[in-house]
Amino acid sequence: MFGSNRKTQPPAVSPAATSLIAQGVVLRGDIDFRGALHLDGTIEGNVRAEGDGILTISETGRVVGRVDVPHAVINGGVTGDVEARDRLELAPLAHIEGDVQYQVLEMAAGAKVNGRMIHRAPPTVRQLAESATEVTRALTKA
After folding, report:
1. pTM (2 decimals)?
2. What is the phi-psi region of residue 127: left when phi exceeds 0, alpha when psi lies from -120 to 50, beta otherwise?
3. What is the mean pLDDT of each run of 10 residues along the chain (142 residues)?
4. Full residue range of the structural domain in which residue 110 is found
5. What is the 3-state secondary structure (H, E, C) of 60-124?
6. Would 10 be classed as within a structural domain?
7. Within a domain: residue 37?
8. What one-character DSSP code corresponds to residue 19?
9. What is the pLDDT of residue 136?
């Protein structure tokens, strides 16, 4: 039992795992992540997520750089442009110095944005059909 030489594998990290950057921590450099990232500290660099990534910035969190994620919940500060490809939630203490692009926006009273607000509509059925037709034509020519 205790003397076993059997080596155990560490548990695999799920793509939906949550990472935490604690208050008082300052990370310098770009961050790419999957799953969820909760920020109580500071990131000096760009933050990017793929897939169903969600970034949560608490009231003590701060990003100095570009944010490019599918879903963001912001209650802290961002100095840089924010692109939320699916959904952006701005809580009462959110303060953004930069342009904001979003598909769906929820903004609480008290949230501040000093920059342009750009709505990105989801592709329509017609646009998707036209894209599929173009791909089909390209494939048949090859």
Report:
1. 0.76
2. alpha
3. 47 64 96 96 96 95 98 98 97 98 96 96 68 74 68
4. 18-140
5. CCEEECCEEEEEEEECCEEECCEEEEEEEEECCCCEEECCEEEEEEEECCCCEEECCEEECCCCC
6. no
7. yes
8. E
9. 75
